[in-house]
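This section describes the prediction task in plain terms. A model, or a person checking by hand, is given the sequence of a single protein chain and must write out its three-dimensional structure as a string of C-alpha cells. No templates, partner chains or ligands are provided. The sample shown here is typical of the held-out split.
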Amino acid sequence: MVTKAENDLLTRVEGDAPMGRLIRERYWIPFMRAARVEPGGRPIKVRLVGGDYVVFRALDGRVGFIDEACPHRRASMALARNEGCGLRCIFHGWVVDVSGKVTEAPSQRHHAEEFASKVPVRRYDVREAGGLLWVWLDAYKGGEAPPFPDFEFTNLPDDHLWVSTTPIACNWLQGLEATVDSVHVNILHQSWVSNIVNSQNAVLQKDLPPLYQFERRNYGVRHAALRDLPDGSVYARVGEFVMPFYGFAGSTNAANGQHTLFISVPVDDENSILIFMRFASADREPLENGPGFRNKPEIEASYNLDNFAPVPGPASDYWGQNYEAIRNGHHTGFDQNLLVEDIVVQVSMGPITDRTKEFLSSSDAAVMEVRRMLLKAAKSFEAGEDWRTHDDGIDYLKIRATSGMVPEGGDWREGFEHDRQQCQGEDQSVGKQLA
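The expected answer:
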C-alpha cells in the first residue's frame, strides 16, 4: 500500500521536491526530437521538471538551451528572433548567444559591452543522440555532469530509428508504470494485438494473468511476465526499467533485432512527455517507415511525430471514445493507434492518481518493485546517499528487452530459443510485435 507521503514523493517534481531534484541533478533528460529544432528556426518553449526554458539551434547547427525569461525584464525568449548564433529579445533587443552569454544590451547607454559581460544567464548542457535532444538541468551550477546514458539506440544511424513524442496531461509516473505492466497488453490492446501478432497470440491469451519475476539491477529492474503454454514451455516477455524513466518493452520482434522503448519525462507535477521509439540494432536492416502499427496504413504518413498519440477528445466527451466502434467489435473504441489507448487510460486516472485508494493484484508485482526502487532513490538522494546496491558502472549499451519461448524446465534469465537459432542463421521468431 502506498501512503499519501509516498505518493507525493514518487510523483512531485516541482520546486524542491526530492524526486525533481534527483532527476535534475543526476540525470540527462531527453525532451524533444532533434529534427524539430531547425537551424535559425523559431525558438521552442520547453517545460521540464517544473522549470521553463527555450531551446534553439543556431545557424551553425549548435543547440542552445536557456531559461525562458530574458535576463533583462523577464519577457519570454520564446518570442525572440533567432539571429546568427543567438536569440535577440523582441522587447529591448538584448542578445543571448548559444553559449549562454549576453553579447548585446542595446538599452545600456554606457560601457554596454562590459555591462553585458556581467549579466548572469543560466545556460544548460545539451547533447544530441538517438534522434533526441537531451539536457542536464543542473549544468548552470558548474559541477561535473552525470554519465551520459550511452544506450544502443544513441549510437544508431537515423534510418535505424523511429522517434515520436506526445504531450500528456497527467503525472509522469502514470506513463512509466504502464511500461512495466505487461498484463494490460492482451486486454487493453486486444483489438490491435490480434492483428499484429500471429496465431501464437491466441495461445498467449489463454493464460492470463502472467506470473511476474524480476531481478534488481544497478540501473533499475529487469522484469519478466511468464505465461505457461500447453506443451510445458513458457512464453517470457522480458522488459527493462532503467532509472529514472525508461521502459524497454519486451517484443517478439526483438528476435529480428528490433526494439521498443518508452520514456516518460516529467514536465511538471501534472504533465509529462511520452517519447515512443522503435529502433533496429546496428547489424540489422534499417527500419521500415512508420511506427509499425500496420492496422491503419492509410494514416501512417499523416502522423505528427511531435504529437503522435493525442487524446481524441475532452473528458466531457469520454476522451473522444467511439462507442459505435465498440458495438462493431473494437475493444476500446479508440482506433487511431495503439498508443492512444495507453494515453487515454492514463489521463482518465486524473492529473495525479491517488495510489492510496488502489487495490493491487498479483500482476502488479513489477509496478510495485519499480515504486520501491524509485522511493529508495528519492530517500537516498535526500540523505546524500547512492540508491544503488552496488556501485559498478552501468553498461547502458547492453540493456535491451526481449521475449521468447523458454523450454520446459528452463530459465528466462538464460536466453531464448530464438537467440540460439539466430546464432545458427535462422529466424524462428514469434509474430511481428506484441507491443
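For orientation: The chain is about 20% helix and 25% strand.
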